[in-house]
Amino acid sequence: xxxxHTPSGGSARLNTxxxxxxxxxxxxxxxxxxxxxxxxxxxHVAGMFxxxxxxARADRDFLVRAVSFLAGERGVRQFLDIGTGLPTADNTHEIxxxxxxxxxxxxxxxxxxxLVHARTLLTGTHAGVTAYIDADVHDPDAIxxxxxxxxxxTQPVAVMMLGILNFVLDVDxxxxxxxxxxxxxxxxxxxxxxxxxxxxxxxxxxQIPAMKFWNxxxxxxxxxxxxxxxxxxxxxxxxxxxxxxxxxxxxxEPGSAVRVPQYGAVAVKP
Length: 270
Prior knowledge:
Blueprint: H1 10-13, E1 19-20, H2 21-28, H3 36-48, H4 52-72, E2 78-82, H5 92-99, E3 104-109, H6 112-121, E4 129-134, H7 140-147, E5 158-162, H8 171-184, E6 190-196, H9 207-217, E7 218-219, H10 227-231, E8 238-239, E9 245-246, E10 262-268
Parallel strand pairs: 1-7, 2-3, 2-5, 3-4, 5-6
Antiparallel strand pairs: 6-10, 8-10, 9-10
Helix pairs in contact: 2-3, 3-9, 4-5
């Protein structure tokens, strides 16, 4: 499932002595692919900001609803999932290919433990394609060049950026990454995005001290942003109903919506 271009030094980069986001996130959503240091940091952050587990689960549930909507209702057959994280249940390719077996999915991450698991777990249908590339969100040109080996960029692509731009600390750089990726996608493509916020109306003030602790004790560094800054990522795109909302409320079933300080939205390129 590798594209043949993946560095062989992934295991050498694996540092089990420092908490890492992919593994801590896995711990918060109830997975088993983490180390003691990840559990310790995860517990401390959860003690400071108890809603973090709800955010992690709401983000995962948003992914399920968004991919189901795009594959099932909008006919999308190509997904570029940047910032994959560790495989769990209901990954992007499983949801899409369940609805449309010929779907093509490219996962992108640069965490060595994700790379190890991706090679063994992210297998797709015979009709479709599932690929993984080891690349950094800070290098969108490399992502697009290598994703082009699997995806047809003359046809619509759903670009997934769930909880990834918060690791691009410079907001102008983050906007440029989105612009460059969406510029390569044709009309009718989609941007699917979630991002943590410190906005009070979503209860986000507690993110600030928790993220400060994270940045002092774990990797990679992270930032929350205002709703206005997050909305700017959708410049030039048409945000679909219900707009940019708490990701737990986006197209959720009545009675199941949760309000967490993580915005989510899906937008289409005109």
